[in-house]
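Q: I have 418 residues here and want to know how they pack in 3D. Can you give me a structure?
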Amino acid sequence: MPQMGPLFAFASFLCAAATACSSTSSDSPDAGPGPTDATVDADAGPTSDASAPDTSARDGSIFDTRTDDARIRHDGDLGDAACAAKSQETGKAVPANLLFLVDRSGSMNCNPPPTTPSAACEANPVKADPTKDSKWEIVRGALKQAVDSMPETNGVAITYFSSDNDCAATSTPSVLFDSATATQKLRIASTLNAVAPYGDTPIVAGSLEAYTYLRDNPRPGKLFLVLLTDGTETCWPEGQNMLVDERVPRALSLGIRTFVLGAPGSETNRAFLSDIAFQGGTPRSPSCLHNRSGDPTLGDCHFDMTQPNTNFAEELKKALDIIARETIGCEFDVPKPDAGTLDYGLVNVKFVAGGGASHIIPQDPQGTCVADVEAWKYSDDKQKIILCPKACDNVKADTFAAISIELGCETQPIPPPK
């Protein structure tokens, strides 16, 4: 399988702070109570030894695992000359925590289309061409590279379904949540290396148990479930409506967003997977199709990698890259200088483009984040600075962009409507 570039190194951002100001920055609130436990339970998935993840490839992108200093400007440019006496401090972006929920059913043994059409795989789930990668080998390589590229500031865990080569699932992941250190990456690589695809496809039970784990193991920052499957629900089809109508929205209300990746084999399950993504707060577009009452093959809110003439390996890499950008987030702690009290009227946010040009992003004092207006706002408790969608998109679109937060100059608001 060809070597894949890094996917998941999350951006480091610069926050500049004045020595005479202060704030009461705090960590993001933990998730509260969540969905009740699923009725299915079993032992955790397989583990084994494995070699350390490869960290040699670096592509210089926003997902490259560079040090924080790689995104910090050292030219002393603090904007307005009247504020030139300010000092700088490195700020902290709100971390992302991802639980990967991965389908290890028997159909993962097949080569992806066009080598093995999905219908043929369902009839005989074996690797038809031993010289080509199976779906599982492609998934394993992509996930190892994605996890390997995550920074230690974020959290990661992984779990599989089924957990018993049949229809069981478990709320105890194969690798529990921990910071994305080299040791944690090795643990995840070990389980991925040890998996032997087999059994049915308990998507409902697997998702319920994953939400249970996220509920019971809150972490500072944002929470994400990343569901990857190549099939349809084979164990509890009558539970699908309950999952989508009740549990996925409930998880979202607790701050758990759900990404869905549909691998080849999930063609007949697009409507269900699409609705999970829509209800989970990660639709591919606001107008995406997510109606489970119609044709089950219609739906495009999720990452659908089943279309004709699709290169599964390339599309999976792209999907993980997009998820990486989405989970970067655009929330930052308000800097906390050494002494004094913070004057919220003397805070500015600067966008520093990869090419060096910079400009102040104005504040939206009303906090409404009007569409197509580059702006920022405070969180309700004024402990976080949040980029509005257009400003956030600009940061994510520029590979080497940085954000600095400057204290001591009068806040620049968005212009009043004409």
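Q: Anything worth noting?
A: Confidence is low (pLDDT under 50) at residues 1-82, 87-91. Residues 159 and 173 are 4 Å apart (CA to CA).
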